[in-house]
Every structure is written in structure tokens, then in C-alpha cells.
Write a structure and sequence with these properties.
heterodimer; A: mainly alpha; two-stranded antiparallel ribbon; about 65% helix; disordered N terminus; B: F1FO ATP Synthase; 3 helices
Chain lengths: ~290, ~70
């Protein structure tokens, strides 16, 4: 897995016509002045690889690139694993079935029922479980050999999931309280002196309609992006220091490699944590919408 | 010396969330030590708080990429 990661990081990707600048993180950390043979620090272009077919240029109609391919592979693998595990579901679970049941049970007991309560959680269990498994599988793709990039490390997928949660909690609130009462409960929280509404109402409106889905998206994307950049940086540095460094410098290459291993393990933790947090916050937002007036 | 001021900006952006996480995790530890029986509930609340604090640090990262 490690050579694959290093190779991917070292490839001097040509980022097509993207207007996003790479200057922010493409600081030449160990750079020599000239381009060839120097150290290629990873940048935002890592997340916009060349198209496999079609074109990913701005304004083009359709493009299919590596990250899309990784997402499709992850979806296929996830469906296959879930199918295999539940194909012959029995009361005494097999090993595969019990692992999947562990995940499903975790979402139900630790997230949905703890936040929403037993009865209210039921209609949302399917959504929360789907989100948990999708995010987890997509995140773990970031450390799987030859995939080497998380499906969630570009904004599309997290945005879709966040919009799903957004629509679900809005419609849950409207269905439970009716449009007027829901908006009143959300935008004019009771128990505040009325002049305070001048301040509170815009903040709450921003919170409900923009910030919740936006922060859900940004949290996941930025986490996976930062993790991938750290991995690429470590393994690219290993590659560079071992091959180009002379004498004792080669030893620092080993240090960079150890750092890369450590970050790989750290990424497993982050993948689990982000899947948990995304699902937890989804449950909380649904709960806010369902709450009686407080 | 070459570089980009955005790097320093992100360094600064991590200070606030760092303080926030420190206070929150420390308080949760103290609360768990006092009342171990509610540690599950405290942990869930800590994770919610961590998610809210974390996004502040990540905004710095995203802003660094966007406005460079």
C-alpha cells in the first residue's frame, strides 16, 4: 500500500484548467529552486486529477475522473460486503453478519436512540445507518491501497449527504408542527425579551438554513482533505529524501516514512470519528426539528 | 525565504479551536472523574462540542485554500 501512496503523491499532476490556486499549501517546504528533481509539495490539485474520459474543465458538460472511479468502487464493495453479510442472516450470526450487526447496532443504540429516543428514532434509522456506512466506507478508501483517496475528500458527496439531512430535518419539522409553528419555534425561541429577537432571529435563520448543512459538509471535506494531504506529504517526503538525499539525510527519509505510517493509523481513527460525528449531528438536527417548544 | 502568509494565518486559526478543545475535554475529564456513571452521556456531549469547535479550525484551512 505504501509504494502506491507514495507514487500517487509524487506524480507531478497537471491540474488542467482549474482556477483554484495552489499557492496556499504548495509552499516549497524542501524545495530546490528548479522544477525537475525538486520536491513536489502536494496541493489542491491532488483532488482534481485528470479526467479518465470526458473533461473536468470548468464549464464542460461531463467528466469522469479518478475520485469518481474510487467512489463507484467503494459503493460496489460496500454493497457486496453488506449483501454477503446479510445474505443468509440467521439468529445465530456468522462472523460477517455479526460485524455488520455491530455497526448497525451502534448507530441504533449509541446514536439514534440516545439522541432521538426509542419511538422517534424509528423513521430515521434507515437514513442514519445509510449515512454512517457510506461515510465510513468512503473515508476508509483514503487508506486502502491503490484507491488512496477518500471519496469524501471532494465536496460533491458530503454536500449531497448534508443536503439530504437538511431536507429531512426541514420536512420532519414542518410535518410535525406545521410550517408556521415550526418556523416560529426555530426563529423566535420562546423565553427571550422581544427586543432580543432583532439579534436572535437572523442568527437562528442563518443557523437553520445555511450553517448546519454547510458545516456538516465542510467538516467532512476538510478533514479528509487534510488527512490526504498529510499522507501525501509524508510519503512524498520519504520518496524524495531516500532517493535524492545523500548520506545521513536518507535517515530522515525513514523518519518521514514512520510519520506516514503513524498518519495512516491516525486516518483510520479519523475515518471512524467523522462517520460517527456526521451521523450524530444528523440525528441532533432531526431532534431539534422534532422538539416540542421549550 | 519563500512561503505564503496563509500558512501563518492557518496557524493562528488553530489557536482558538485549540483552546476550546482543551477547555472542553478537560472539563469532561473532570466531570467524568466526579460522576463516572454518566460518562456515556458526557462523552456524546463532548463529541457534539468537538464537532462544533473543530469546524472553526477547518474554516481556517478552507479559507487558506480559497483566498490564496
Amino acid at each position: 500500500m505504501l509504494p502506491g501512496a507514495a507514487r500517487h503523491g509524487y506524480e507531478p499532476d497537471v491540474p488542467g484548467e482549474f482556477t483554484l490556486s495552489t499557492a496556499a499549501i504548495a509552499v516549497p517546504i524542501l524545495a530546490e529552486g528548479e522544477d525537475d528533481g525538486g520536491f513536489h509539495a502536494p496541493g489542491i490539485e491532488e483532488f482534481f486529477p485528470d479526467a479518465i474520459f470526458g473533461s473536468t474543465e470548468l464549464g464542460s458538460f461531463f467528466g469522469f475522473d479518478r475520485i469518481m472511479l474510487v467512489r463507484l468502487v467503494v459503493v460496489a464493495v460496500l454493497l457486496l460486503l453488506l449483501w454477503l453479510a446479510t445474505r443468509r442472516a440467521s439468529l445465530i450470526p456468522s462472523r460477517g453478519q455479526s460485524i455488520v450487526e455491530l455497526g448497525v447496532g451502534f448507530v441504533r443504540d449509541q446514536i439514534a436512540e440516545q439522541i432521538l429516543g426509542k419511538e422517534r428514532a424509528r423513521p430515521y434509522l434507515a437514513m442514519l445507518t445509510t449515512i454512517f456506512f457510506t461515510v465510513l466506507a468512503m473515508n476508509l478508501a483514503g487508506i486502502v491501497p491503490f484507491l488512496n483517496i477518500a471519496g469524501t475528500s471532494r465536496i460533491g458527496l458530503p454536500l449531497v449527504l448534508a443536503l439530504w439531512v437538511f431536507i429531512v430535518y426541514l420536512s420532519a419539522g414542518v410535518r410535525k408542527h406545521g410550517l408556521g409553528k415550526y418556523l416560529k419555534a426555530q426563529l423566535f425561541p420562546p423565553g427571550v425579551p422581544w427586543p432580543a429577537y432583532v439579534l436572535i432571529t437572523p442568527i437562528e435563520a442563518l443557523q437553520v438554513f445555511v450553517l448546519r448543512p454547510a458545516t456538516l459538509t465542510i467538516r467532512l471535506v476538510a478533514n479528509m482533505m487534510a488527512g490526504h494531504l498529510m499522507l501525501v506529504l509524508c510519503f512524498a517526503a520519504t520518496h524524495f529524501l531516500l532517493l535524492e538525499g545523500g548520506g545521513l539525510i536518507k535517515l530522515t527519509g525513514l523518519l518521514a516514512f514512520a510519520g506516514g505510517l503513524f498518519i495512516t493509523l491516525f486516518e483510520v481513527f479519523i475515518a471512524l470519528l467523522q462517520a460517527y460525528i456526521f451521523t450524530l449531528l444528523s440525528a441532533i438536527y432531526v431532534n431539534f426539528a422534532l422538539e416540542e417548544e421549550h | 525565504m519563500e512561503g505564503n502568509l496563509a500558512t501563518i494565518g492557518y496557524g493562528l486559526a488553530t489557536i482558538g479551536p485549540g483552546i476550546g478543545l482543551g477547555v472542553m475535554i478537560g472539563q469532561t475529564q473532570a466531570a467524568t472523574a466526579r460522576q463516572p456513571e454518566v460518562s456515556g452521556r458526557l462523552f456524546t456531549n463532548m463529541m457534539i462540542g468537538a464537532a462544533l469547535i473543530e469546524v472553526l479550525g477547518l474554516l481556517g484551512l478552507v479559507a487558506g485554500l480559497m483566498f490564496s
